[in-house]
Design a protein that fits this description.
By secondary structure, the chain is mainly α. The chain has a domain of 56 residues. 74% of the residues lie in helices and 0% in strands. The longest helix has 38 residues.
Length: 94
């Protein structure tokens, strides 16, 4: 057996990012599924098939993608804060 060692800061950060990204697909599916189910229920309650199903399904898809964009932006911000800025100003005026 190899001796146990503590993960480095970078390894811990990479694990956190992987965990955040692994939930995105599940959250997208849940948002779409709940929206579709809520619309189906409303259509049954008010006898308006398929109006509410389509509306709520669209809202679920929109909410899922907005959450996806929010998570990706948050990960991008956290990775840009942790990485040093290696860009150098260029001498080329174009």
């Amino acid at each position: 057996m190899s001796p146990s060692r503590r993960p480095t800061k970078e390894e811990r950060r990479n694990r956190r990012q992987a965990l955040r990204l692994s939930t995105v697909g599940l959250e997208l599916g849940v948002a779409v599924g709940l929206g579709g189910y809520a619309g189906y229920w409303l259509d049954g309650r008010f006898d308006t098939r398929p109006v509410w199903t389509l509306i709520m399904l669209f809202l679920g898809i929109t909410a899922g993608f907005l959450n996806l964009i929010r998570v990706v932006n948050r990960l991008d911000q956290s990775s840009s804060k942790s990485e040093p800025n290696d860009s150098k100003p260029s001498d080329d005026p174009s």
